[in-house]
Amino acid sequence: MKQKNLNTSKGKVVVAAGIGDYSAEEICLIDKCRFAVIDILEREGYAAVAFDIVENEFIRSPEIVVEKIKKIKPDFVFNLFEGFHGRAGSEADFVRMLESANIKFTGNGSAALRTCLDKYTTKKILEKNGINTPRGTLFRDIADLAETEHVFPMFVKPAFEDASLGICSASFVSDLKSLKKTIKKKLDDFSEGLLVEEFISGREYNVGFFGGENFELVGVSVLDYEQYPDCISYLNYSGKWEEETPEYENFMPRIIDSNDPAYRNDVVEISRRAGQLLGCSRYFRVDLREKDGRLYVLDVNPNPDISPDSGFGRQARANDLAYADVVIKIAGNYNL
What we know:
Helix content is 36%, strand content 21%. With 336 residues, it is α+β, with helices and mostly antiparallel strands. The chain is globular and about 60 Å long.
């Protein structure tokens, strides 16, 4: 085992992650990422301190959480917190309190986090600026269905969630009866609202960026669902996070470069523009799909998963950037 760098001259870093009502698999993934980050920071010369944002404590008194961080007196917080289940806005709330307390942190600011979490607002900002998104409507009540244009197949997802929460087999609907059933059920689970959109059936692209003046491209991945005829044609929660499912085993986006036939320069430029419009900085990912040659932005994800085997990490490795380089680059960008 290599000797850790005991020179902590680069300063003290709090590595913050959430501890809440998570499954054992989710806790394992959180810890795997956090301790990989801590190990790299320590080897680089930082004094890294693991910090738990405990759900019950945060909900009861978020100010106490920030006060605990202030007592540690970090030079900055390496922020791995992605919010709690059913409380997606807590991710932006935490960062807003860091901003108010003048505590420096990695990742995006609270404004970008909150805007991108609101899928309908994101859609309207992009469309206003000439970027295609799937035709869609915000639902807060089943009665809204009577005033909606139906272009089947359609896709139903929570309007205020991320990490594919709420995306399941019932999300894809091909007729009015199924649409009514799915909206009614999902409004019970996601009372803040649902986004019901035209389903875009073609290839899916994921584009990662680091922050900076013009954004540095990390990499481009593509997933062609036609190669998996026995699986669903979209990436659901299971496909992202549950290792025992067929979707998780099969749906591995392929990282591509400009020499690949699937590569499109406009994928990168549209993604970069989307990040700029939504106020992203430091690092983020954009998801798009294509239909009849046109590209549609599905989601913009500030502070995406950066665990060693994440899509972001794999894109970096494919472009000769080691995982340690990813962590150090993110740590070095907290002042951007």
